[in-house]
Task: structure prediction
Amino acid sequence: MQQTSKLLPGEAVFRHTVMAGNHWIDTLRRGQTLRIVDVEGNQSADTLFFNAADVADRYSAVDTIREQGNVYLSCGTKLLSTSGQVLARIVADTVGRHDTLGGACASESNTVRYDLEKRTMHSCRDSYLLALAHHDALGLGKRDLTHNINFFMNVPVTSDGGLTFADGLSGPGHYVEMQAEMDIIVLISNCPQLNNPCNAYNPTPLEVLIWDGDVA
Amino acid sequence: MAKSVEEWDLSTENSADYETIIEGGKHWSFNVSGGTLLRLTDLEGGANAGMLFYNPHNMLERYNAPDTLKCQHTFKLTKGHCLYSDMGRIFCSIVEDTHGWHDTVCGNSTGVLIAGRWGERSYQAFRNEWTQNGYDAFLVEAGKYGLGRRDLAANVNWFSKVAVADDGKMVFDARAPKAGALVELRFEMDTLVLMHTCPHPMNTASDYPRKPLKLRFSKALPVAADDFCKNSRPENLRGFANTDLYRRFGCQDFGGRSGGV
Result:
């Protein structure tokens, strides 16, 4: 469901551009709202969430889609943790559909999808690993890199059980917003993929904004 | 006819098959060597077999459902598909499947889900007829290898079909099960398998489904050049190449710490 936001960028308490191939990791306090902007369109924001008070309790794609009975994420989706708690709720979305089936790219999966000789190309998992290494006080590592959300990606499932990578529904300036229901760690890789037509082989910047607020 | 454990002959263990039945609502785990063939049979129809896969030589390498689905452009799992690790290697290939559609995106039943749907049946009151849940079942088996909550991932649910409508709505197909349906997994590398036979989390049967699963272990034939799974997609040719490199050059006996190529 598409839903615009009433939040004003001028009132955001934090604003940061994440260039393609870079990562962003920060803690979102309960009640704060995070907006991710697809600045130039058709980019993928590969995103993971962790319960800041118990990092082994983290975003669970399978529990999230099963409990809402729908494989696509949009406004109204409760982002559930592995223990079934609501980490955050999607409160605005100008795109209407986001993927959480396709996972993040990794140099190893790129060898399978494209060519063994592409093993040295940059990937989301490399960005994730570097982010966690630079923030090792959080106690997170490769074990914690699980099934993520791909905001702005369109990965339709067909009725006969196929998975397709369609042109994005997103475009320049589209955004998605989620409000934290508890203190959560947010980890984003701005996807550096150069082998997939889904971003027209042209990875572009994302912007993240945060507003203070209270959970209703 | 496969040998039961009573007939087990250790002198021929390399050639003997092994067959066992896991009752519904239970859990188990085992290590298999590359080259093992595992046949799963839904004896009565309606079984659900939750399964997770790890590299016993490097437990950080585990089954990756998203990588498995996206590299084969599929949402369901069936014959010809390979189950990938997060390192671009193939734990096992689905070499036979008479069920046709297996789920890998719905996760597990939980204690809360089971209690809400079928009521809680404690061990104290019900003994072996208690209502175990898939999530706790995996945690118990994972714990036997030093694994925990952080190590669980999206699992396979063999013999459970969940289809998706155009608007994304997920539908559990209660008519899909067939008594005697089987799926055969050929392991392409050494693999730790965690499994349970707890109900699929979207199964809304009126009573807690408690369906047995037969497992039969045997030695697989070598992978031929024209193997169906290997050649089902160009991606799988590359997945087999990655796995082969690991088997040929990987250092697999280094205190469980090394990853190979």
The interface with chain B takes residues 56-57, 60-63, 65-66, 69-72, 82, 84, 97, 101-104, 106, 108-113, 115-116, 125, 142-147, 155, 157-159, 161-165 of chain A (CB under 8 Å). Helices of chain A lie at 61-68, 107-113, 124-134. The first strand of chain A starts at residue 14 and ends at 18.
